[in-house]
Amino acid sequence: MAATSLTVRPELSTRRRWAVLAICALSMLLVGLDTTIVNVGLPAIGRGLGVGTRSLEWVPDAYTVILASLLISAGALADRLGRRRVFRWGLVVFGVASVACAVAPSLGALVAARAVQGVGASMLNPVALAIVVNAMPDPRERAQAIGIWASVFGLSMAAGPVAGGALIAAFGWRSVFWVNVPVIVAALVLTARFVPESRAPRARRLDLPGQVLLTVVVSLCVAVLIEGPRIGWTSPPAWAAYVVAAAAAAGFVAVERRRREPLMELALFRRPAFATAVLGAVAVFVALTVSLLLTTLYLQHGHGWTPLAAGTATLPLALGAAVCAPLSGRLAGRYGARRPLLFAGAFLTVGGLSLVDLRPDPDLRQLLPAYLLIGIGFGFANAPITNTAVSGLPQARAGVAGAITSTARQVGSAIGIAVAGGLVAEVGPAGLARASRPGWLLVAACGLFLFVVAHAARQAAPSRPASARAAASRV
Q1: Which residues pair with 6 in a beta bridge?
Q2: What whole-number distance in Å separates Cα of residue 85 and Cα of residue 131?
Q3: Does 14-207+259-472 carry CATH code 1.20.1250.20?
Q4: What gap in Å lies between CA 405 and CA 350, rounded to an integer?
Q5: Are the C-beta atoms of 245 and 253 separated by less than 8 Å?
Q6: Nearest alpha-carbon partner for 73 in 128, 35, 122
Q7: Which subcellular locations apply to this protein (predicted)?
């Protein structure tokens, strides 16, 4: 199907442009919250459905694995079929899947519904951003809108446990899914009223073989991390997964090299700045999800805290991220990515190390400052990582680079959940503090890796002014 170019209507007023931003930011709030809001509810879900900790890891990971796998293809589909159309499809799929999650009678049904939620979320994340960019023709206004966008996404990820804890305390664990429904309905009504349709001037072709192979690779890698401790790392099923994942990865590389319009431009990884930035995106979200999940299990499973109390304990993390995310964007736009990346690496490293000697009994004097440090590190990390990824690229390839870093963030979330769950699954309450030590060392190691990303950012040659770099950090 030929792609037609639709531009923003001339009569699109300032009020309507910012209404478009608000609607799209609302969808991102849902996507970010659903990545982490379920973490604090895992113990309650386990009690409600009668399942253990290890099986529960699939509840958040079914969502993040599918979301990570489909992000790039969803953006290409929207460019071809119409961004508003695909955005509305995403809202409907996300809403229906949320209802299915809320009424799920078993763990299997819940995991399946979470996977469908991931499909819907994949049609919201990159598509909503493209709608915002299309609605903001003025570069300065667009950069300001993208800064707000990045802040909303970072805050939603960090605030998920707090919101989840409050909902579960008031209405039970199913409420973390029911709450999506009125928001989805409102977003659908507002989208029909305010959001204009748009398509890319030249739509990319869908890469179905690459999409299938990428999904197989990501899914199998996460599956092995989750199930490896149970089935044995050297068991025949584990070896079968290793072989299939390696074959799928080799097939993915071969397919992508031959396609004129590949799902993922592998040539980008030849640039050290881009490759390290992608790994940095994985590392940051591994650190965040490990921190949130270890905290949830330590406080709730280990010491009987309520979901609200455990979520409230992570409030310093959310506050640190909320304050530092917009500051990081301004620093990256004015001085480049290196300075905020150094801040992010330092705060994440110190925060992780301060919890390595976690006491058997919770001590808020130890926990709260550490969570604040981790939140500050997370807030400083996001904008400069994307800035580093796109630095030196022509505008036509910056969008692809940003989409890959968005995928890397979701892969990091899935890996973090699998690793944290594997560390403490089937560990008694008395042993959780000791069992979580490798997890906090991993958080610190992720922080140290950001110093490598900062070095690569210094090596990357800037090619655009600050305003353009700020706009490029949109994903």
Answers
A1: 199
A2: 11
A3: yes
A4: 25
A5: no
A6: 122
A7: Cell membrane
**DSSP line for 126-144:** HHHHHHHHHH--SHHHHHH
Which amino acid type is present at position 119?
A: V
Distance from C-alpha of 342 to C-alpha of 226, rounded to nearest angstrom: 32
Which residues contact residue 342 at a Cβ distance below 8 angstroms, ignoring those fewer than 6 apart? Answer: 450, 451, 454
Cα torsion through 370, 65, 410, 185, rounded to 10: -100
For residue 249, count other CB atoms closer than 10 A to its CB: 17
For the chain, the straight-line distance linking the first and the last C-alpha, in angstroms and rounded, comes to 27
Cβ atoms of 146 and 474 within 8 Å: the answer is yes
List residues bridging with 199 in a β-sheet: 6
Sign of CA dihedral 150, 152, 155, 156: negative
Give the three-state DSSP class for 164: helix
Instruction: Report how far residue 39's alpha carbon sits from residue 41's, in angstroms, rounded to the nearest whole number.
Output: 5
The two tokens of residue 132 are: 């915002």
Instruction: Using the structure block, give the residue that is written with the tokens 């397919």.
Output: 255
Residue 181 vs residues 100, 173, 188: alpha-carbon distances, Å: 11, 15, 11
Using alpha carbons, list the distances in angstroms from residue 220 to 114, 215, 236, 418.
Answer: 17, 8, 14, 12
Per-residue pLDDT tens digits of the chain, which is 475 residues long:
333 334 444 456 778 888 888 888 888 788 878 877 887 888 889 888 888 766 788 898 889 888 888 888 887 788 778 888 999 999 999 999 999 999 999 999 999 999 999 999 888 877 877 787 777 777 667 666 766 766 677 677 667 788 888 888 889 899 999 999 998 999 999 998 888 887 767 667 778 898 899 889 988 888 888 888 778 888 998 999 999 999 999 999 999 888 888 888 888 888 888 889 899 999 999 999 899 889 888 888 778 888 888 888 888 988 888 888 878 877 877 787 888 999 999 999 999 999 998 888 888 888 999 999 999 999 898 878 877 776 666 655 655 676 788 788 888 988 898 888 888 777 777 778 888 899 999 999 999 999 999 888 776 544 444 444 444 443 4
CA–CA–CA angle 66, 411, 78 (5° rounding): 50
Q: SS3 for 199?
A: strand
Q: How many Å is the Cα radius of gyration of the chain?
A: 21
Residue 243, burial from CB neighbour count under 10 angstroms (0-12, 13-18, 19+): exposed
Tokens representing residue 285 in the block: 């979200």
For residue 74, give the nearest of 29, 140, 118, 17 by alpha carbon.
118
Distance CA 270, CA 382 (A): 22
Confidence (pTM): 0.81
- State how far the Cα of 246 lies from the Cα of 344, in Å rounded to an integer: 33
Largest CA distance in the chain: 64
